[in-house]
Specification:
The complex is a heterodimer of chains A (316) and B (463).
Chain A (H helix, E strand, L loop, with lengths): L11 E10 L2 E11 L4 E5 L6 H8 L7 E7 L7 H9 L3 E2 L6 E3 L5 H8 L1 E3 L12 H7 L2 H7 L4 H4 L3 H20 L15 H13 L5 E5 L7 H17 L3 E5 L3 H7 L2 E6 L2 E6 L1 H5 L2 H8 L3 H22 L2
Parallel strand pairs in A: 3-9, 3-10, 7-8, 8-9
Antiparallel strand pairs in A: 1-2, 1-4, 4-6, 5-6, 10-11
Chain B lengths: L7 H8 L7 H24 E6 L2 E6 L1 H28 L5 H4 L2 H58 L8 H18 L3 H23 L4 H21 L1 H4 L5 E2 L18 H4 L7 H26 L2 H11 L1 H6 L4 H27 L1 E2 L6 H14 L4 H18 L6 H4 L9 H15 L31
Antiparallel strand pairs in B: 1-2, 3-4
The chains are: A alpha/beta (316), B mainly alpha (463).
Bound molecules: adenosine-5'-triphosphate and magnesium ion.
């Protein structure tokens, strides 16, 4: 968004991330950053390793090599990351600005402490639970504390009743945002596909994340639903303190809403920039057209030629 | 499961459910079944070895085999021509949705009233002599199983962790309370909570290494754990008495008043005439209270974050972790709370029997309790209670069928067929109601309107 930023620690910085599965190198020395208040898109052909990146960030996989740092505060001095890395600890708590080395943390702590929420490429709702229950489960940690690890809850303490009312309020807020209030008491598995996708996003938002990771949220949506999704994501970015990291194949979604695009191919980054830069990047075009490596340079040259031709025509 | 897939009956039923299969086709299918029975039965039924001294002689039982083949033929024909078309045309039974809510609450009250008054009803109907059997075998024993079913329901039904060794916690409860009572002379009322705590502690101890496993692996390890506990009880003779078990466990007292005929006994204190029924009444109400406690706590926990996390865990563990839920602790709480109720039941069992031995804690018990949970409908408190009543009450009723001896001869023992009936009940349930008796799920929290959730959407968990 804003073109010039003060040099601060970015929200998420992925450095030299490598993930091997046996002999297969799924991610190969990937580094990129996601800024606060941005929608960052991660794109690439099938099997490029996008979901694997998500799984590393959210702790479902332990990276073979690399550092993934998340800084809650923009005022975090850059050397704080180095110092934390050397200290061997996993995080600086919120009082000190909140800095987390995600590759050292187990998955559930990443959501609970570092405040990263995610959705899945194949939807993972609690289908046998109601829509409302899905959103309440997402607030588990806060409610667990309020229920005094169930002891206060068992005796029906006021403080717990209040916390639960607040949880319901947050749930209804998000239900309203995704237009599903009328289906609050229906099982999540009964919803149509598009609603399930939005519900999964709402559920992730109920954990109050600083970073929301969405794995192909527009997959299988019709154009109308896809449009609604765009507005929902923009709303999250603009009105909440939540940045978005997005995997998406649908270029209309990517180009329309993202502030920053990272392109992966065979686990390596081939481009990184604004949507406009990416659109015209020869390496990206070659990757998407599925050109062999030897031909790639030829295509690049061709595109360069075309573009210079076009600009030459445009300028008098 | 849906009848024959090879013959044309299956296809005709799928396309036009109203038409019956051709009689000829059904006849041949049934013939095939009969031949199958003959084929399978030739080695196991036809040939019988009889030993007299050192001599083994072979007997061929053609009559028996023919009879079985005939039964199979008739049953198959009946199934194809009558039962299968009827099943196909039947509207799915949605009892839970059709019964109005108000009726349900009244039915609930009536059942609770009946259970609370049960000993008096039994006494009134069966007289002093007959009531003992009805209160002890049907009342107390049934309630123990209801309680065990509810305890295991937390682990299997709510959290979706397949535990095949639940009886281990029952045993831990029974032995710890028995040992505490006989060694330190602690009263039943002290032993009871201690047994629960110890069982919960064992639940945590076992849970730590085991709950990283899922599905089949978890089931096998819990099964092994149940066996280990039993073998320890058998072999650690100094501590547990081995096969001989522990006897002379003090009977529970009524606030210090023993149920004896003596001067300081319960009967004398209240100026009643002594009868062993007093103790039974008391035991009945103790186990009833324990069962109600189990039910109350489970229902409460289900509506708390922890209970919702259990059910979410059963639905999708990975999604749980993505929402910041510590799945290991969550599983451990389910495991240990389930174990605690098993421990309570064990302590009660020890006090009721006055004697325990490893015989009471065999794998079969785990299997029966698990069967109760599965048949009841995983997660449903009412379903589990009904299943316990049907399964345990049913096997107790088998003892009442002594008149069958007049038909089948004096060597016929109906209780021997207990497991056969268990198996048949399981198969029948899996065919007609694969999700158990009560297959709908009640939401734990509502915004506008409470709707039951169809069991088809509810997942059973993978471990
Ligand atoms: N757990 C795993 N074990 C082994 N290989 C894996 C594992 N997860 C991913 N891979 C491999 O890593 C590579 C990248 O997979 P990934 O799912 O990250 O691709 P993707 O970019 O998300 O593709 P898509 O667009 O199809 O979702 C693939 O070759 C995949 O087979
Ligand atoms: Mg993917």
């Amino acid at each position: 968004m804003a073109a010039i930023r003060p040099s601060t620690t970015p929200l998420l910085s992925v450095e030299h991330l490598t993930m091997r599965f046996g002999g297969l190198v799924a991610i190969d020395g990937l580094s990129f950053k996601a800024e606060r208040g941005d929608i960052t898109a991660l794109i690439g052909p099938n099997g490029a390793g996008k979901t694997t990146v998500f799984n590393c960030i959210t702790g479902f996989y332990k990276p073979t090599i690399g550092r993934i740092a998340l800084a809650h505060s923009a005022q975090m001095p850059p050397h704080a990351v180095e110092r934390l890395t050397e200290s061997g600890r996993r995080w600086l708590d919120r009082a000190k600005g909140g800095l987390f080395l995600l590759e050292r943390m187990p998955d559930f702590e990443i959501t609970a402490k570092a405040k990263i929420a995610r959705t899945f490429q194949n939807i993972r709702l609690f289908t046998g639970m109601t829509v409302l229950e899905n959103l309440i489960v997402a607030q588990h940690n806060a409610l667990m504390r309020a229920s005094g690890w169930s002891l206060l809850g068992l005796i029906g303490a006021k403080s717990f009743t209040k916390a639960q009312a607040e949880a319901i309020e947050r749930a209804t807020f998000w239900l309203d945002k995704i237009n599903l209030t009328h289906r609050a008491d229906d099982p999540a598995g009964d919803l149509p596909y598009g609603d399930q996708r939005r519900l999964e996003i709402a559920r992730a938002m109920c954990t109050r994340p600083r970073l929301l990771c969405l794995d192909e949220p527009a997959a299988g949506l019709n154009p109308r639903e896809s449009h609604d999704l765009n507005s929902l994501l923009r709303y999250i970015r603009d009105e909440h303190d939540t940045a978005i990291l997005l995997i998406e194949h649908d270029m209309s979604v990517v180009m329309e809403i993202s502030d920053h695009v990272v392109v992966l191919e065979h686990g390596a980054k081939i481009a990184d920039g604004t949507p406009d830069e990416i659109k015209n990047d020869p390496a990206v075009i070659a990757a998407y057209l599925g050109v062999e490596d030897e031909e790639e340079s030829a295509v690049e040259a061709e595109i360069a030629q075309l573009q210079s031709g076009r600009t030459a025509e445009g300028t008098p | 499961m849906r009848g024959p897939s090879i013959t044309q009956t299956a296809t005709t039923r799928d396309t036009a459910p109203h038409t019956r299969p051709g009689v000829a086709a059904a006849f041949f299918d049934a013939l095939k079944t009969a031949l199958l029975v003959i084929g399978l039965g030739t080695p196991i039924i036809l040939i019988e070895t009889r030993q007299s001294g050192a001599v083994v002689t072979l007997h061929l039982r053609f009559g028996l085999l023919a009879a079985l083949a005939g039964i199979a033929f008739a049953a198959r024909l009946l199934h194809l021509l009558v039962i299968a078309p009827w099943l196909a045309n039947r509207q799915p039974l949605r009892l839970a949705e059709r019964i109005p809510r108000q009726f349900k609450t009244w039915a609930k009250r009536a059942v609770i009233a009946f259970v609370v008054l049960y000993p008096f009803i039994a006494l009134a109907l069966a007289g002093k002599g007959g009531a003992i059997k009805w209160i002890d075998n049907f009342g107390i024993q049934l309630l123990i199983y209801v309680m065990l079913g509810w305890g295991l329901n937390i682990v299997v039904g709510l959290a979706g962790l397949l535990d095949l060794g639940y009886v281990a916690f029952y045993a831990v409860g029974a032995y710890s309370s028995a040992l505490l009572a006989t060694t330190f002379g602690l009263s039943f009322w002290l032993c009871l909570p201690l047994a629960g705590i110890l069982a919960a502690f064992w639940g945590i101890l076992l849970g730590f290494p085991v709950l990283r496993l899922r599905g089949d692996y978890l089931a096998i390890v819990t099964l092994a754990f149940g066996e280990i506990i039993r073998l320890v009880l058998i072999n650690w003779v100094d501590f547990t008495g081995g096969y001989a078990g522990i006897s002379g466990i003090p009977r529970p007292t009524f606030f210090g008043l023993p149920f004896t005929a003596g001067e300081d006994g319960f009967a004398a204190f209240f100026g009643l005439q002594f009868t062993p029924l007093h103790r039974l009444f008391f035991l009945f109400y103790v186990i009833l209270a324990l069962a109600f406690l189990t039910n109350y706590v489970t229902i409460k926990l289900r509506r708390l974050p922890i209970g919702r996390a259990w059910e979410a865990l059963r639905e999708d563990e990975i999604a749980c972790r993505s929402l910041g839920i510590d799945t290991v602790t969550t599983k451990l709480t389910a495991f240990s709370i389930g174990a605690m109720f098993g421990g309570f039941a064990g302590a009660f069992f020890a006090a009721r029997q006055g004697f325990i031995s490893p015989e009471s804690f065999i794998f079969m018990e785990s299997a029966v309790i698990l069967a109760i949970v599965v048949l009841g409908g995983m997660g449903s408190q009412v379903g589990v209670a009904i299943a316990a009543v049907v399964m345990i009450g049913g096997t107790e009723l088998l003892r009442e069928l002594d008149w069958l001896k007049q038909i089948f001869g004096p060597s016929f023992d109906p209780t021997k067929y207990r497991m056969l009936l268990f198996g048949l009940a399981m198969v029948a349930m899996m065919v007609w109601k694969p999700r158990g008796l009560i297959s709908t799920r009640e939401p734990s929290i509502v915004l506008h309107e409470r709707k039951a959730i169809s069991g088809d959407l509810v997942k059973e968990g993978h471990g």
